[in-house]
Design a protein that fits this description.
Helices cover 6% and strands 0% of the residues. The protein is largely without helices or strands. Bound molecules: zinc ion (ZN).
């Protein structure tokens, strides 16, 4: 007789995970940009105007059949 109730992997007393948000209805701080920012986006600008830019790889990999 296995005690199945004890095997359940549920968390005790589910604390509502307080997901950190940064305010609702924020928009990009870039002038003229009205892109709404996600409440989870800690930046004050949209991805397009964020200071951090994704470095683009220069050139392309020569497709030399190496899959
Ligand atoms: Zn923007």
């Amino acid at each position: 007789m296995a005690n199945q109730n004890a095997i359940r992997g549920e968390r005790p007393t589910g604390l509502p995970r307080a997901s950190r948000t940064y305010g609702k209805g924020r928009v990009c701080s870039h002038p003229g940009c009205e892109t709404r920012l996600s409440t989870y986006n800690k930046r004050d600008r949209c991805w397009a105007h964020a200071e951090m830019r994704i470095p683009r790889l220069r050139g392309r990999k020569p497709a030399t059949g190496s899959a």
